[in-house]
Design goal:
Blueprint: H1 3-16, E1 33-38, H2 43-50, E2 58-63, H3 74-84, E3 90-96, H4 106-115, H5 121-128, H6 133-137, H7 143-155, E4 165-171, E5 178-182, H8 184-190
Parallel strand pairs: 1-2, 1-3, 3-4
Antiparallel strand pairs: 4-5
Length: 191
C-alpha cells in the first residue's frame, strides 16, 4: 500500500463520516493574524497549540526557515493578500531553534540534486540567467538574526500597511516556548 492510497482511504472515511464538520470556519482569520513559520514537521501541531490557535484563528504560511527571501516572491504576496483581502491586522514571523535551514550547504544540496538526476548543465544555465544558487538556497547562521531580517523585510515593504504590527518570535521545537525577538506593538508605538 502506498502513502497516497493510505491518505485517500482515510479521506474517504473522513468525508463519509462527516468528520470535517468540527473544522468548519470561514476564510477570514478569527484572531485577524497571519503567521509565517517554518515547514519543520515538529511545528505542525506544536506551534498552533503553543500560540493558543485553533482552526479558523489564523492564516498560516509555511516555508523553509520562515524566511522572506524576495520582496516580490510568493511569501510576501501571501502576507499582503492576508492583510488586504483576508482581514489580518498582525503578522507573526516565527522561526525556531535547531532549524534545518541553519545547516543548509548549497554545495551539498546541488550535489544531491545531481545524484537524483538533475543535469549539471542546468546550474550553468541558471547562473547565466542571473540565478545565484548560493544566495537563493543558502540558509542562515542565527535564527534570531534571520527573524529580525524577515520582520524588517515585511515591515519595510513598500506595499505593507504601516499600521500592521509585524512581530518576530522564535519557538523551541521541543517545548513550544516562545521568545519575543521583535514586538511589533512597541515598534509601531515608536513611529
Amino acid at each position: 500500500m502506498t502513502i497516497l492510497s493510505e491518505i485517500l482511504g482515510f479521506n474517504e472515511t473522513f468525508v463519509s463520516e462527516k468528520q470535517y464538520e468540527q473544522y468548519a470556519t470561514t476564510k477570514f482569520p478569527d484572531k485577524k493574524i497571519v503567521v509565517l513559520t517554518c515547514m519543520d514537521t515538529r511545528l505542525t501541531e506544536l506551534l498552533p497549540k503553543a500560540m493558543n490557535l485553533k482552526n479558523g484563528d489564523a492564516k498560516i504560511i509555511k516555508s523553509a526557515g520562515a524566511v522572506v527571501t524576495h520582496p516580490f516572491g510568493g511569501i510576501m504576496r501571501s502576507l499582503l493578500v492576508a492583510v488586504y483581502e483576508l482581514r489580518a491586522d498582525e503578522v507573526y514571523i516565527v522561526g525556531h531553534h535547531d532549524c534545518g535551514m541553519s545547516a543548509v550547504d548549497t554545495g551539498n544540496l546541488t550535489k544531491k540534486m545531481v545524484e537524483r538526476g538533475i543535469d549539471k548543465d542546468i546550474f550553468k544555465t541558471l547562473k547565466y540567467s542571473g540565478v545565484d544558487m548560493e544566495k537563493w538556497l543558502h540558509g542562515f547562521g542565527d535564527v534570531t538574526e534571520s527573524v529580525k531580517q524577515s520582520v524588517d523585510a515585511v515591515r519595510n515593504h513598500p506595499l505593507m500597511d504601516k499600521k500592521v504590527a509585524i512581530h518576530g518570535l522564535v519557538v523551541h521545537p521541543d517545548t513550544g516556548k516562545l521568545d519575543t525577538i521583535v514586538d511589533g506593538y512597541e515598534f509601531n508605538a515608536k513611529e
